[in-house]
Amino acid sequence: SEPTPANESDRERAARRFTGGEVDGNSRQLARYIHKQVLTYMPEMNPMMVYRLDRFGRGGHHRPFNDLGYPGVRIMEAHENYVRQHQDIRVEDGIEYGDVIEGVNFDYAKKLTAVNAISLAGIGWAPPAPEDVRIGGAVQPSTTLQWKASDDPDVVGYKLYWRLTTSPTWDNFIYVTGTNEHTLEGIVIDNYYFGVAAVGKDGNESTVVFPYQQIRRGR
Predict the structure, then answer these.
(1) Which pLDDT tens digit goes with each residue over 4-53?
(2) Is residue 1 one of the residues assigned to a domain?
(3) Cα distance between residue 37 and residue 30, in whole Å
(4) What is this structure's pTM?
C-alpha cells in the first residue's frame, strides 16, 4: 500500500512535515484494516503489510485508483514462484515453465478469495468512516480528537486509536459514545499518532481516519 495519497496538494504535503502522518494515508489505513480482519478471522494466513505501492520497481492494477486519490491495495502471495510466473510456457531441461492451470494452487486461491471476502464484508457492514477528523494538543499534557457527528442511525459510537509513531498497527484505543470530541488525558500528542473509527450496532468498525487537520478554536 502507498503511504499517502498520490494526488495530495502541495499544501497538505508541506503541513505534514510539522504534524506527521507520512504513513497514514487512506490506502495505508485500508491495508491496516485488512491486516486486522485477517488476524481476527484467518490468523493462519499470517498476514504481512508491505510499505510499498507494489512489488519492487513494479505497479499493480490498484495504482490508477491511487493516482486519483482512492484507497487501493494489492493482496498477494509474498513468495512468487518464478518458474511458473512471468515465464513463456515451455519445457526446458526437463522443467515445466509458465503459468498454466496445472500449476494453480486452488486451496490457496480459495483462502485468498476468503481474505478479500472478509475484508469487503467488514467494510460493507460497517458504518461510514468519520468525517472532518481533527486533532489538538500542542504544548499540552493531553490530546483532543474531534470529528463531525454522524447522522447515520447505525453509528453507536467511536473508537479513538493511538500508537507509537514507529508502530505499523493501531495498538491502543478507547470507545466513546454520545460525543464528537474527546480528550485523552496524559497522552502527549508529540509521542503518538492518532485516528478515529466509527462503530456500528453490530460491532463492525469503519476504517480509521487520520486527523490531518487541527482543531479550530474561536477567540
Answers:
(1) 999 999 999 998 888 899 999 999 999 999 999 999 999 999 999 999 99
(2) no
(3) 11
(4) 0.91
HEC assignment per residue over the chain: CCCCCCCCCHHHHHHHHHHCCCCCCHHHHHHHHHHHHHHHHCHHHCCCCCCCCCCCCCCCCCHHHHHCCCCCCCCCCCCCCCCCCCCCCEEECCEEECCCHHHCCHHHHHHHHHHHHHHHHHHHHCCCCCEEEEEECCCCCEEEEEEECCCCCCEEEEEEEEEECCCCCCCEEEEECCCCEEEEECCCHHHEEEEEEEEECCCCECCCECCCEECCCCC
Whether 152 is covered by a domain: the verdict is: yes
Residues 175 and 143 in one domain: yes
Exposed, middle or buried, 109 (CB in 10 Å: 0-12/13-18/19+)?
exposed
Straight-line distance from the first to the last Cα atom of the chain, in angstroms, rounded to the nearest whole number: 41
What the block records as the C-alpha cell of 34 is 485488512
> Which amino acid is it at 170?
W
Looking at the structure, tell me whether residues 102 and 165 fall in a common domain: no
Say how many domains are in the chain.
2
The span from the CA of 189 to the CA of 31, in Å, is: 24
User: Which structural domain, as residue segments, surrounds residue 162?
Assistant: 131-214
Residues 72, 148 within the same domain: no
